[in-house]
Amino acid sequence: MEKLNDIVSRFATTGEISEIKPLGNGLINDTYRVNTAATDTPDYVLQRINHNIFTDVEGLQANIAAVTRHLRHKLEAEGADDIDRRVLTFLPLRDSDKTYFFDGESYWRMMVFIPDAYTFEEVNPHYARHAGAAFGRFQAQLVDIPDTLVESIPDFHNMEFRLKQLNDAVEANAAGRLDEVRPIVDDLLRRAEKMTAAERLYREGKLPKRVCHCDTKVNNMMFDAEGRVLCVIDLDTVMPSFIFSDYGDFLRTGACTSAEDEPDLSKVNFNMDIFKAFTEGYLSEARAFLTPLEIEMLPYAAALFPYMQAVRFLTDYINGDTYYKIAYPEHNLVRTRAQVKMLESVEAHTPAMVEFINSQLA
Ligand code: GN1
Ligand code: MG
Fold first, then answer.
1. Cβ 103 vs Cβ 8: under 8 Å
2. Where are the alpha helices (DSSP H) in 53-124?
3. CA of 268 to the centre of ligand 2 (A)
4. 338 Cβ neighbours under 8 A, 6+ residues apart
5. Contact 233, 201 (CB under 8 A)
6. What is the spatial distance between Cα 292 and Cα 287, in angstroms, rounded to a whole number?
7. Which of 23, 27, 250, 312 to probe ligand 1 with, by most ligand atoms within 8 A of CB?
8. Cα 19 to averaged position of ligand 1 atoms, centre (Å)
9. How far is CA 339 from the centre of its chain?
10. With a 6 A CB cut-off, is 234 part of the ligand 1 pocket?
11. I want to staple 212 with a disulfide (CB 3.0 to 4.6 A). Which of 103, 104, 245, 299 is the partner?
12. What's the pTM?
């Protein structure tokens, strides 16, 4: 705590710090809530940036600054109220404009804590409709961002690249786990051609990349007490990508009837009611800028993300768990199995998804 207090003291906070405690359950960064003693000073969030993963911290923070600045301008132009709860505010250091601090070992950043806001691991259709509209609006608001964003993790949602990483892991078999997972590897590789369609269409000039959030799992969104979306959080991965990233990754978690690491596969299914509500909300905001091909490929996006996540979890398992935080030795394998089950359930619902999307466009 000594150390955390010292780090916090580098940032331009107001008010006396009363408490620092762990917050949330992200798989990558370490997050803390920093409370201040007085009621009229804000509380804060402190984060240690995982710079093994985000190697370009300068570029990462520049992305986030550009995005939050642009969103703030949009909200101001609309005459929105409560702007400080609807877009994240990062703190500069006391002695410079930088929004991160390097302690010689780790990179840290601080933002203002948004009061009276809630995150969820699960949503009902009402929340899902709001979430769809919020991510659609998020993308729509960023369509005209003047800044060029960097890929804070290069090739982050590039399916060809993720498959290459899987093939490399299989080749190296660093943790000696390959025999155990060979059937899952084969099952995933069988779908490789189909799942890399977006990259091919991009090369052919048929699909655009737009600024996306790229980590739209359900717990990266803050709701108010009425279930309205206040704000999208966890902006590390905001970067140019296919719109499928945001649409598909939300459904992967939000429309899953279980947690992403549920060991009992009979509990892992695709929830069509959440899909419908989310899609309706998303299209209400995004339809104006989406191309017909992007819309047609939304069911592909719903399958792509459990697939990509299965490939990523399995790669990490084969590599000996070097990327994701794990709670027990088989964790990445359990996660992989749950994602494969989710993928199968999405595949089974594809005709129904197509029918629903067409009905929305009619
Ligand atoms: C990671 O940081 P967190 O837990 O929100 C990951 C996502 C994965 C997710 C799986 C930078 O997100 O891409 O979908 O875990 N983020 C990064 O739960 O790899
Ligand atoms: Mg998160």
1. no
2. 57-78
3. 21
4. 258, 259, 260, 261, 262, 263, 265, 268
5. no
6. 9
7. 27
8. 27
9. 16
10. yes
11. 245
12. 0.89
